[in-house]
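Recap from last week: sequence in, structure out.
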Amino acid sequence: MAVLCKPAIAVPEYILTQEDTLELARRMHKDHSQLRLVLRLIEHTGVRKRHLIQPIDKVLKHPGLDARSAVYEEESKARVPAVVREALDRAELEPAQIDLIVYVSCTGFMMPSLTAWLINTLGFRSETRQMPIAQLGCAAGGAAINRAHDFCTAYPDSNVLIVACEFCSLCYQPTDLGVGSLLSNGLFGDAVAAAVVRGKGGTGVRLERNSSYLIPHTEDWISYAVRSTGFHFQLDKRVPGTMEPLAPALRAIAQEHQWDAGELDFYIVHAGGPRILDDLCHFLEVPPEAFRFSRATLTEYGNIASGVVLDALARMFDEASAVDGQRGLLAGFGPGITAEMALGTWTSTPVAT
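Predicted structure tokens:
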């Protein structure tokens, strides 16, 4: 079965602390009628710091969609290759051994996708398949894992590279002054992540089952309004409560595999905010420490969209607490409202030489 190997993560050099964010909100929105609520919500996110690809003064200027698109292309080409090489090294593979690249990003747009540039630049074969995913938002990290699993199930000798490139700061909109928008300004961060799914061999999570679930009639709860100024993020106040209808879907996939979702050994889930994780503890009946990897990502990097699941998984590798046979759940949540879920077992099968 396919094995999800240790991800590689890189965050940019410009740091914005929660104190910086609160001070900016006080200064820029001092006359906002709901400023106290906004400040309280930002404080409760648990995000201690975030990383940005540009200094905050450049982010706040918003030079326009054309300029931001140029920055997205320039920065992705500058930052993605090193992360890809590290992910390949961790999986003990060369570029020529990759059969599919799944590239996910909801914070910029290129056509052809960055996958074409990566193939031409980093030594991948011209026959390498490409699967760009642009419209699943934060759920795309889970979707990328699942589509890689599907591919390796269909082609058991194949290897898949997953790349998540999220520059959320390029979506900042100074004219969006709703509470949800101002909260988002204190929540999202920038990061690049990559991981390899090996068809055979490798150490990591042996993927065994995956599933998707969409909560009916919630497509406008998380969305972009695409305008001449770029992507305007829209967040409905009902989003934090979505774990109540999604928890049964998490339980269902586990039951289909004859597992109990409340009695697994590890949980790697998207941390959109602390309420998501708190509710999952309640509805799955697991202790808070079950989501320690996701909480650490949220605290140290903020919500890095599709990269959260990969970063949380990398933290589990670093903790080195997993042993062969332990069972776990991976899940990404995003627009739709969509859940992309996977079950897997930890394995340390030696890589064949």
